[in-house]
Design goal:
Length: 191
């Protein structure tokens, strides 16, 4: 094999350059390079519940679910974003995938939304790690309206708070401010 072809292919793998981590400023580390804010699954789950039930975010998430965005894709985006913000480490991030998926399913089920769990071509895969088929099957069954959200995923406080969430109308567009008309950049200058 030609060494240039090999190096070209290896460079496409998205790997960090050797020693890249040593180029970070030690006086100003990125949030994920510091100690995480959460190291306990229960505390992180409560944080995620507050995060997904924040009114504007809740509306956006449920609108996405109603339009067919898979739950596991939403889970990946939320968890990776929070990891980058320094909320938890990668191990805890993987452990939170299942509880967060059930939270989103419970919220969508409350609104009688059709729920899509994952893409068929990425079946059972989250962050490139394959989940146990039995667990993925349980998540899929809960999305079929069987209400199989396991005991303990939603606390009594979460259930009570869920009842207080607004009923959103997914057919109603949010009110938008009119955009002021601006002259074309291609128009002749005035005067």
């Amino acid at each position: 094999m030609n060494p240039d072809v090999y190096l070209n292919e290896v460079s496409k793998m998205g790997r960090p350059i050797p020693g890249q981590s040593l180029t970070s400023d030690p006086d100003n580390p990125a949030p994920y390079e510091q100690a995480p804010q959460f190291t306990n699954v229960h505390e992180a789950t409560l944080f995620l519940w507050d995060f997904v039930t924040e009114p504007a975010r809740y509306n956006a998430l449920m609108t996405g679910v109603s339009k067919g965005v898979p739950i596991m894709n939403i889970v990946e985006v939320i968890l990776f974003e929070q990891f980058q913000e320094g909320m938890f480490n990668p191990d805890l991030m993987l452990m939170l995938a299942e509880p967060l998926a059930y939270m989103l399913i419970a919220l969508a089920e409350r609104l009688d939304l059709d729920i899509k769990i994952d893409n068929e071509e990425e079946e059972g895969d989250i962050f490139g790690v394959e989940m146990e088929q039995e667990r993925m099957q349980q998540i899929r069954e809960s999305a079929q309206g069987n209400s199989l959200v396991p005991q303990g995923v939603l606390t009594e406080e979460m259930k009570a708070e869920m009842e207080g969430l607004p009923e959103i109308s997914l057919l109603q567009r949010p009110e938008e401010e009119p955009v002021p008309e601006q002259p074309s950049l291609m128009a002749q200058p005035e005067g």
